[in-house]
Fold:
Amino acid sequence: MRDAELVDAAREGDAAAFGELVERYQRLVFRVALSALGSREEAEDAAQDAFLAAYRKLHMFRGEASFKTWLLAITWRHALDRRGSVARRLRVFLSPDEHSWPDAVQPGPSQEQALVHDELRRRVRAVVKTLPRGYRDALLLANTGEHTFEEIGQVLGIPTGTAKWRVVEAKRQLKRKLVGLGYVDA
Amino acid sequence: MREPRHINDDDIDRALKGLVDGGPSRAFRAAVMRQLAGSASPRRARPAWRFALAGVAGAALLAAALGIWSLRVSGPQSPDRATRATTAPSATAAGPDSPAARMPSSVTPPVFALHAGAGTRTSAAGRLRLPLVGVFGQSALAADDATVADAPVVAQISVTPLAAPDPLEVAPLTPTLASAGHPPAGASPVPDLLLVAPLTFDSLKLEKVDVPPLTLPPPAETDIKGKLR
Structure:
């Protein structure tokens, strides 16, 4: 069933139809929230908030954009609200390690390689935090692998070209900083 | 010295992807659906025209309140009493938030002034239910002022609904209707009459009865058209 049909059914009070939309987009919504918040726990909370908000606002969805884009825009706003909250800033200040992007478990071909990748991930995570927020947001959204530049632009409220440029520039700055930390561009 | 590490774009992309990888917990969908069960359905969301209608109704109520206000301040006044009213001592004796304290000094006898107090609200039938305060005299007493209840009654006030469809709506006010007395010691020597009556009305007539001839000005009537819907 297409998104539009599920949306129509959900508008008529069919909770199961909305449940199908949740199933379809939960990973995407979660990753968008994670891009903004850097904490899995908070990302999950923000994703829940986003779905609830989307459900309440379904009558406002006109279908001018795709449901996916509309939902991601809502998610991003909720994540930003959460990111900007004083309570969160306080929590991050008090326990910074619990509020950073997680280390994903990526098994490598050998233990040595795994260690190398693990160290690189930690370095990258630390450097990404130092990037300007606009660049960082675009870069992380792009690296979810789920969005086109056009969608990133719509979520961030910037033109597609700007979104593309920010991703490229963020990557350039990231690489430059990594080289400054002793890595060599191969 | 530490040997430099070689990296390429793929390494960086892989590391970046690791930051935003994964998905929510398995219980995520169930949690969302559980919250949705207690949430408002999108069908029940209020359309914009309802808000517009509420705005229009609010404006109508405001206009009605202004109408009552203008009726109250447009009664005949005698210059000397108006002058005295501006210096009425008990106007300051009343609390700043009491309905009586908000009475303008221009309200003077022999006109009964009706004042919609702060507790104005709409009844289920749609008509306004107004805590009314009728003030007679230069000074006003607070509705909740204990001295009002304790003061000796020097006059009685009756309220006659002219077009109330249901007399029962007026009946409950009777016990609290007549409350008149002298102002507190040191206040104006002219007695104040204070009427506190929760009342639902379409059209209302107030009249004084049993007025002591020497202490009160001539009887007067005030009709209020309160078609408030």
User: Anything to note?
Assistant: Chain A has nine helices and one strand. The domain at 1-99 of chain A is CATH 1.10.1740.10 (Rna Polymerase Sigma Factor; Chain: A).
